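Weekly sync, protein design subgroup
Attendees: M.S., D.O., the rotation student, P.L. (late)

Item 1: inverse folding check
M.S. brought a backbone from last month's batch and wanted to see whether the design step gives back something sensible before we order anything. D.O. pointed out we never logged the input encoding, so this time it goes straight into the notes. Structure tokens as presented (460 positions):
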């Protein structure tokens, strides 16, 4: 079945159904014509009864032949032209009267047939259609039997020819239909071959190739359109992956060359102890930042891979935020920033605890990072039509309107010169965005440069 093409499959299915239908139709045609022919013969026999009765008189005990000419009519004399054979048999089975065309022969007669009945039989080896019926006197006693017959040969030849035509025509019609339907099926799926040919040409290096859309907006059009869309998305993923690798290498190469340069200068000649301590501290700081970046990249790659599934549970958001605030105490104290939780009422939400923690810590750490010394950061929880909301507001440097949509991109940092003083490589918010997507949390941001930034998470 593996190499049984769609074209042949369609043709075979079609033919299987059609074969049954045509067999039913041909049988019906044969039955109708068969019945018509026999009805016609039988009504001819019936007509002859009338004629015979007009030539005899049925008395109480006998039959009188009133019109002997009727028995010598042309059709009863000649055998060749539509002869009609008539014979009267008495109750003992002896032939009492018969038409001359019977010559020495006699029609088949049976005592067993007591009522009017039609049947096929033979006369001198030739097929005939025969009718036998009793002739009764007025009181109902059978005086004799009337037997009438007409030749069947021609009707049988017609029926035989019809049968032959239908039997020979049946396979011919089916074979013709098979090839026609195979041809039509082949033509209708031809565009699929174009789709296959194009798809085969597309490789990872050649993701710009697209399938030409057919003119008819049918299923094949939808197939081609869907594959093209899939290719668009695949290309985007491949480009993003390449970009990610390039960005990550770049971000790691810069501190590495700084470290290498610093150490090279340091070993060029003997130096004072303070100079060593100073440079080694500098190098250690760079190594710290690199290790932080590597941690973030690994975390990001883990979440991006789609292998991490959120385990959604109900928990009290206030407690989780309390934990995060506590962990940020050291960073906020360093800049004398007051980090306050404004809401006392308890709110329960449904989400993944550890993922939500990473989101809140990233937003909180940014709020502290991008605030000036002695400012404040407020966290509050509330409820609106969309669900429970958690708002983190700072009064720091803010983000220009045109860059708001980009800050969730990997390695994106607003104005590198402004942020160069603060640690970070632009990965934090990309992680936040990914984690929010995984859990179907809403994240929105409002910001005014030099006034502050407000992040709002919505738990549905
Ligand atoms: P980074 O490690 O640079 O902080 P993020 O992805 O966390 O990376 O943030 C991306 C950029 O968005 C930051 O470089 C910063 O310019 C801007 N940003 C994020 N949070 C704030 C905030 N609270 N106030 C001002 N700017 C912010």
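Designed sequence read out in the meeting:
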């Amino acid at each position: 079945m593996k190499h049984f093409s769609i074209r042949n499959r369609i043709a075979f299915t079609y033919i299987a159904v059609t074969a049954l239908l045509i067999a039913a139709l041909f049988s019906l045609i044969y039955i109708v014509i068969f019945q018509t022919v026999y009805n016609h013969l039988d009504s001819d026999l019936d007509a002859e009864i009338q004629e015979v009765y007009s030539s005899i008189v049925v008395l109480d005990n006998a039959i009188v032949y009133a019109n002997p000419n009727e028995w010598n009519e042309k059709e009863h004399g000649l055998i060749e032209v539509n002869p009609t054979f008539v014979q009267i048999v008495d109750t003992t089975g002896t032939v009492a009267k018969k038409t001359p065309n019977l010559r020495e022969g006699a029609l088949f007669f049976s005592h067993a047939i007591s009522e009017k009945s039609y049947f096929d039989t033979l006369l001198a080896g030739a097929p005939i259609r025969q009718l036998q019926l009793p002739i009764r006197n007025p009181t109902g006693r059978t005086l004799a039997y009337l037997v009438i017959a007409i030749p069947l040969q021609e009707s049988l030849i017609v029926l035989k020819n019809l049968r032959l035509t239908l039997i020979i025509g049946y396979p011919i019609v089916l074979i013709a239909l098979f090839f026609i339907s195979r041809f039509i099926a082949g033509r209708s799926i031809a565009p699929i071959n174009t789709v296959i040919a194009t798809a085969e040409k597309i490789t990872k290096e050649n993701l710009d190739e697209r399938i030409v859309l057919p003119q008819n907006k049918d299923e094949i059009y939808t197939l081609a359109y869907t594959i093209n869309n899939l290719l668009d998305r695949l290309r985007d993923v491949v480009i993003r992956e390449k970009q990610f690798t390039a960005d990550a290498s770049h971000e790691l190469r810069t501190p590495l060359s700084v470290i290498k340069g610093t150490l090279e200068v340091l070993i060029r000649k003997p130096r004072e102890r303070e100079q060593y301590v100073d440079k080694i501290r500098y190098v250690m700081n760079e190594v710290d930042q690199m290790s932080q970046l590597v941690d973030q990249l690994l975390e990001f790659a883990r979440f991006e891979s789609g292998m991490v599934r959120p385990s959604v549970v109900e928990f009290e958001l206030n407690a989780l935020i309390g934990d995060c605030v506590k962990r940020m105490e050291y960073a906020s104290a360093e800049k004398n920033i007051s980090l306050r939780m404004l809401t006392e009422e308890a709110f329960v939400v449904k989400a993944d605890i550890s993922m939500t923690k990473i989101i809140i810590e990233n937003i909180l750490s940014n709020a502290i990072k991008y605030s000036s010394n002695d400012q404040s950061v407020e966290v509050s929880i509330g409820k609106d039509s969309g669900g429970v909301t958690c708002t983190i507001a700072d009064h720091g440097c803010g983000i220009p309107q045109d860059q708001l949509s980009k800050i969730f991109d990997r390695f994106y940092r607003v104005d590198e010169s402004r942020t160069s003083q603060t640690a970070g490589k632009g990965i934090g918010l990309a992680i936040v965005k990914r984690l929010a997507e995984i859990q179907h949390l809403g994240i929105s941001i409002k910001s005014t440069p030099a006034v502050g930034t407000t992040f709002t998470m919505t738990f549905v």
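Discussion: The mean pLDDT is 88. The domain at 309-459 is CATH 3.30.565.10 (Heat Shock Protein 90).
Action: P.L. to compare against the previous round before Friday.
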